[in-house]
Design brief:
heterotrimer, A alpha/beta (420), B alpha/beta (494), C alpha/beta (249), B: 494 residues, alpha/beta, 11-stranded mixed beta sheet, 10-stranded mixed beta sheet, 25% helix, globular, disordered N terminus, C: 249 residues, Rossmann fold, 6-stranded mixed beta sheet, 4-stranded antiparallel beta sheet, 8 helices, 10 strands, 25% strand, binds adenosine-5'-diphosphate, binds magnesium ion
Chain lengths: 420, 494, 249
């Protein structure tokens, strides 16, 4: 049953590709290969180990259309986001909007076609879908030694007069040797739509990409994104993903530590209520000696929400002296919320230090009592403890403006969330 | 020192190098033709004179098996198994189920003696040295290929109301119990291998502890695969009524053979109110040679149901043998306040593959589970811990603690940890910790400075690493297990 | 007798010992003092056979054995004991079991009879009592969760039970209070006999008030730059290493 729904949905996407094929911009050979892969494999199903906790059925039951060109009140939406005053690239329904954007000076940025990047597909079905239907994206190239500061990458989605739409932006970031960039992504919108971005990042020796992601899609939206980050010697990929929005969301991050002393941080916080479903799935591949990875993932779940965390640390035989650490903690605040957590170590080198930890529970009764015994009302005490719980993931964000932005997004979410 | 430890010592001492239990025994066998079909299922059932309901049950299981697929999610690789190229029934000729020990084939008795398994009751009693804290002897059920060949101390046990006999015998002597509980914990269609076992299971142990009885001695089954090209499909069923208590041990070995042999057992445990079952395994099936030739494929389904309030099931396993181990002894915690435990040491060397762990399903309120897993990989082996902790919606106050540690010896092996944690109750609390490390150079040097050889130092450090599990084993087994660990890892360091 | 001759050794790319000559006759206790990083621990590790060092020249003989040719456990069986500056933790390994295994391995190697559990416990308990240590020392895991002082005392207990012919004590006094210091000294003094020698590595003259050495050597920059009687320790205490090093240069 569900299998056929998935197939029918895949057919819908393929039909769209067939109709638009001749009009797509960019590399057609790569697109054709993506279409071929998608035609063969379709959407991921519940029997696949990597998808055992996230069923795409609600997505498959929705028919998505090609976005229409015009949207009227996007600038109002943009204003509502209260963006920090920084250079920004704004995409509306996956297409670059020059009037709403403000390009940074002296940095090579190309838009108008998908930026497929140089990292090969890894057989990921969502990526094949993206490759097949990608229409636009940003190629950001930072020259060696340049500190490019911060660039905002904003995505606004909206349905087309009540018809659900899907868009599949494809961005590629390249950092030359010793370069630096903070890429701050904000995903938002209204109505029912499906945002399916893929970002590839190539980080050269000694370069650092800080990748901050704020997912606050519309309550009816689907968000399925994938990041590939390849890090050369002494480079750093430092990412934080905040998930607040969407009906069904999954963020996949694949970090490949390819050179000695390369480093990755894959931190995340998911705050979910109502019937939201959000999945944070990562793999870190340690492929060179003395590489390090750190992960702190926090979930706060209320209502009937379902949170998923899957984190895999792979250590190749040559990756001696790997240091891998992963911590996943969940607060369950309601009787109907659910967390599924699958941390995973796959280790082929013997001189390594790898560990993971995972805890699930409610607020600590002793701490709660301690606060109340000092006169703090229970509701406030709970709030204090929840914020303290999250701060471990938020505090390491060094970018003040973006951290503040995320803090207020959390505060806004909290005001709307049903109190447990 | 008690009898078993003593004899096991002796076995360990007189044999040297490689797999020490690899001899085979010449016994005249009654074999079914190769292959699996309805007729074979009927043949097995008729050889055992089974009642119609059991034949029905087997045939249903066989029908289910044909529809199922081999599971493919474990991190193991092997050439396809040809299920039609095996014998599904092999039994020593002569009598069916000896009535007393005197009727057992002397060749068989000799073999068990060689393995250090004393089947002669007087021999056991004579072997017990009177030392402080003397322990009672152990009752043993010996299963040779498909058939139980001897059960000791049956009469002594019967006096306290304990039933300990081959399951093939229980089918006749206690049909109502077997019928009530068989397949009630592991249904025939649970998985591919459980279905196969349900269709063709040959023998195994049956234990029943009535209300309020503490089993007066340890019970033990000793499994031995001997015949060539024979699958072994034993089935164990243990039922402990309200307030009862039993400690059950299981040991396994097999001859050294070039071809792979299939072992697909099912173990079902049922613990009623306030009952306790402690199930310990030392699994040392033939692991294959250094190049991965031969060895047992061990696909085992073990599950216990804590049906009554405050009941407790504790699994302890030391897995050193088998070419492939696929095994997840589990607890279904239904009764309020029931407790599940899983303590495991899994050692893989050469080309062995182990994918083992547990499932703890928390259904009742205030249920508790503890998982301690120690994986040791050496040579070119792969060792995976795979474990599920599931907290159901109504399991208020449930608690789980999981600790998984892996030790790598050498840089050609793999150590993997795959926990699944699913929680649906806010008042439940689960904690999971996992680490991976190797034996530190400075630890080895420290021991050697004090005069220990490299191998003794490794043995000592590995035993230290496994201590939290080994201490859960009954004394006699702990001694054997420690030696087994050292022997298994011989030659893997240095 | 320990006889070290022109010993040069180091790690890859770095020579640490640059020609050590040292003789410790049987029955004597010698002290080695010297600034941090001068190579004292390196010397003790090389004498006991730790991996990771390259010996580039010289010899080290002990009772007619060529130490440098032997495995660490062979050196131990020959009677060499090292009290580690940083004792190693062995999780899950019971202290009593560890000691008995070590003692019996050494006895076996020397062709002596092994001790059974009962005899061993008797011996160990007696030593514990004599060294005024806590009884639970034997039950605990080797050095796991021990305080710094407890670890050092555990080293001395091991020495007392293993009864070596040559003991090298690498800063066994560091981090000890005065009572513990006396216990360490008692442990060494109890072993003193015409068949026992010791090499006591220390920073402080204080320990040498309790273990009075026959000779004192100053190790600096990988060489022994001065040797003398017990009074040398007092001179170092009064003037510091810098003066002695400058004088020798
Ligand atoms: N394994 C090693 N790796 C790097 N440096 C080392 C190592 N061992 C010793 N050294 C260096 O050699 C010198 C002597 O060290 P050590 O013998 O520990 O000195 P001491 O014990 O006299 O303080 C120091 O500079 C130390 O840093
Ligand atoms: Mg030192």
């Amino acid at each position: 049953m569900s299998q056929t729904t998935l197939q029918a949905s895949a057919q819908g996407f393929l039909a769209r590709y067939a109709g638009l094929k001749s009009r797509f911009p960019g590399d057609n050979a790569q697109r054709a290969a993506g279409a071929d892969a998608f035609a063969r494999h379709g959407l991921p199903g519940p029997r696949e180990e990597a998808w055992r906790y996230t069923a795409l059925r609600p997505l498959a039951e929705t028919a998505f259309h090609e976005p229409v060109i015009l949207l009227s009140d996007t600038s109002a939406q943009l204003t509502a986001l209260a963006l920090p005053d920084l250079p920004r690239l704004v995409f509306i329904d996956g297409r670059f909007s020059a009037p709403l954007s403000r390009l940074p000076d002296g940095i090579s940025i190309t838009t108008g076609a998908p930026a497929f990047g140089h990292i090969a597909d890894n057989g990921e079905k969502l990526v094949a879908l993206n490759t097949m239907l990608a229409e636009d994206g940003a190629a950001i190239d930072i020259a060696p030694g340049i500190d490019a500061g911060t660039i905002l990458l904003v995505s606004l989605g909206a349905d087309a007069h009540g018809h659900p739409v899907s868009f599949h932006p494809r961005h590629a970031i390249r950092l030359g040797q010793g370069a630096r960039l903070t890429l701050a992504e904000i995903n938002s919108g209204t109505g029912v739509y499906f945002n399916n971005p893929v970002i590839t990042a190539e980080i050269a020796e000694d370069a650092t990409l800080v990748h901050l992601r704020e997912q606050r899609e519309a309550p009816g939206a689907f968000h399925l994104s994938t990041v590939f980050a390849k890090v050369a010697a002494r480079g750093t990929y430092d990412s934080f993903s905040l998930a607040l929005g969407g009906r069904l969301a999954r963020v996949q991050v694949h970090a490949h530590l390819a050179g000695e002393n390369a480093m990755a941080h894959l931190n995340a916080a998911q705050l979910l209520g109502a019937t939201q479903h959000s999945d944070f799935t990562t793999t870190v591949r340690h492929d060179a000696p003395s590489t390090a990875s750190r992960q702190t993932v926090k979930n706060v779940l209320t209502g009937h929400a379902k949170g998923v965390f899957q984190g895999k640390i792979e250590v190749a035989r040559i990756a001696q002296k790997t240091d891998g650490y992963q911590m996943n903690q969940t607060l369950l605040l309601s009787r109907d919320a659910e967390i599924d957590s699958k941390p995973q170590l796959e280790i082929y080198a013997d001189d390594v230090k790898c560990s993971h930890g995972c805890t699930v529970g409610e607020l600590d009764a002793d701490q709660l009592f301690y606060l109340r015994s000092r006169g703090v009302p229970e509701a406030d005490a709970r709030n204090i403890l929840i914020r303290a719980f999250l701060s471990e993931a938020l505090d390491p964000i060094a970018h003040d403006a973006m951290r503040d932005h995320m803090e207020s997004a959390i505060a806004a979410w909290w005001d709307k969330a049903p109190t447990p | 020192m008690a009898a078993v430890a003593e004899t096991l010592d002796t076995v360990a001492a007189v044999t040297e190098g490689g797999y020490k239990w690899g001899f085979s025994t010449d016994i005249e066998m009654d074999m079914a033709p190769k292959g699996l079909n309805e007729d074979i299922v009927r043949l097995i059932s008729s050889r055992k004179n089974e009642p119609a309901w059991l034949l029905e049950w087997r045939l249903k299981a066989f029908a289910l098996w044909k529809k199922l697929d081999e599971p493919n999610w474990a991190k193991i690789h092997h050439a396809p198994i040809d299920y039609q190229d095996l014998h599904y029934y092999a039994a020593p000729k002569k009598k069916q189920g000896p009535k007393s020990l005197d009727e057992v084939d002397p060749e068989l008795l000799k073999m068990y003696e060689k393995l250090g398994i004393p089947l002669k009751e007087h021999a056991i009693l004579a072997g017990v040295e009177p030392v402080e804290g003397e322990r009672p002897p152990i009752a043993i059920d010996a299963v040779f290929d498909s058939v139980s060949v001897a059960t000791t101390f049956k009469d002594t046990l019967a006096k306290s109301g304990v039933i300990f006999c081959p399951i093939s015998e229980a089918v006749h002597s206690h049909p109502e119990l077997v019928r009530q509980y068989l397949g009630s914990v592991v249904p025939a269609g649970d998985n591919y291998f459980a279905a196969l076992n349900s269709a063709v299971f040959s023998d195994g142990s049956f234990v029943f502890i009535p209300k309020g009885v503490r089993c007066p001695m340890e019970l033990s089954t000793y499994f031995r695969i001997n015949a060539r090209n024979t699958g072994q499909f034993e089935r164990t069923l243990i039922i402990v009524e309200d307030g009862g208590h039993v400690s059950y041990l299981e040991g396994c070995t097999a001859p050294q053979r070039d071809e792979n042999q299939l072992h697909a057992a099912v173990v079902e445990l049922v613990a009623l109110t306030d009952a306790t079952i402690k199930y310990s395994t030392v699994q040392n099936w033939y692991p294959g040679d250094a190049d991965g030739k031969g060895g047992i494929y061990n696909f085992v389904t073990k599950r216990g149901a804590c049906r009554g309030a405050r009941s407790k099931i504790s699994w302890t396993q030391v897995e050193t043998g088998s070419a492939i181990t696929w095994k997840y002894p589990s607890c279904v915690l239904i009764g309020d306040g029931s407790v599940g435990e899983f303590y495991s040491v899994a050692v893989t060397t050469n080309r062995q593959q182990a994918d083992t762990g547990t499932k703890m399903i928390h259904i009742g309120k205030n249920t508790k589970s503890t998982i301690v897993s120690k994986g040791i990989s050496a040579g070119r082996s792969d060792n995976t811990y795979r474990g599920l902790v599931r907290i159901m919606k109504n399991a208020d106050g449930a608690r789980n603690f999981t600790q998984c540690d892996s030790l790598l010896i050498g840089d050609q092996c793999g150590a993997h940890t795959v926990p699944y944690i699913e929680s649906r109750n806010p008042t439940a609390k689960t904690e999971h910790e996992a680490t991976t490390s190797k034996i530190a150079e400075d630890q080895l040097f420290y021991c050697r400075q004090r005069g220990l050889s490299q191998e003794d130092a490794v043995g000592l450090i590995v035993n230290g690493f496994c201590k939290d599990v080994l201490k859960e084993l009954p004394m006699e087994f702990a001694v054997e297990a420690q030696k087994l660990l050292a022997v298994s890892l011989e030659g893997s360091v240095g | 007798m320990l006889e070290i001759n022109a010993l040069r050794a180091g790690i890859t790319d770095k020579e640490i010992l640059k020609g050590i000559d040292l003789i410790v006759p049987t029955g004597e206790v010698h002290a080695i003092m010297g600034p941090n990083g001068s190579g004292k621990s390196t010397l003790s590790y090389i004498l006991s056979g730790r991996d990771g060092y390259d010996v580039t020249g010289g010899t080290a003989m002990f009772d007619g054995h060529d130490l440098l040719e032997m495995d660490p456990e062979e050196r131990a069986a020959a009677g060499l004991f090292l009290a580690f500056q940083y004792p190693v933790e062995l999780p899950g390994v019971n202290n009593a079991n560890f000691l008995r295994t070590a003692l019996n391995a050494q006895r076996r190697a020397r062709g002596e009879e092994e001790l059974d559990a009962v005899k061993f416990l008797k011996l160990a308990r007696a030593e514990i009592k004599r060294l005024s240590m806590a009884d639970d020392m034997l039950k605990r895991n080797v050095n796991v969760g021990f305080s710094g002082g407890e670890k050092k005392r555990n080293e001395v207990l091991q020495m007392a039970i293993l009864r070596p012919k040559l003991a090298i004590l690498d800063e066994t006094d560091s981090g000890l209070d005065i009572d513990a210091l006396k216990i360490v000294a008692d442990g060494v003094n109890a072993l003193r006999s015409p068949d026992f020698s010791a090499l006591v590595i220390t920073h402080y003259q204080r320990l040498l008030d309790y273990i009075v050495p026959d000779r004192v050597h100053v190790l600096a920059g990988g060489r022994i730059i001065r040797s003398g009687g017990p009074e040398l320790a007092h001179e170092l205490e009064a003037n510091g290493y810098a003066a002695v090093v400058a004088e020798a240069a």
